[in-house]
Design brief:
- With 89 residues, this protein is of the alpha/beta class.
- The protein is 38% helix and 37% strand.
- It has 3 helices and 4 strands; from the N terminus they run E-E-H-E-H-E-H.
- It has a 4-stranded mixed beta sheet with strand order 1-2-3-4.
- It is globular.
Amino acid sequence: MKIHDEQLEGDVYKINLEGRMDIAGTQAIDLKFTGMTAAPRKSIIVDISGVDFLASIGIRTLLVNTKAVNGRGGKLVILNPDATLKRFC
């Protein structure tokens, strides 16, 4: 699992995920992903177009961090979700 970030115009922050979000892949990025979504970032885009497998643990990681950002008054959006993830969004 690979994770990299970029600062877009304004206060928009983008996180790109690539690989398999299975148990091993999610564990490999979990701490870094949580840090990237931490305050004071309020506008975050998570691009999962490079994710070729998304297990329930990966969905959990995305949802937990989305709720944390939203709870701080921010907004985290998932870019390019597949049909499985769209059911949870």
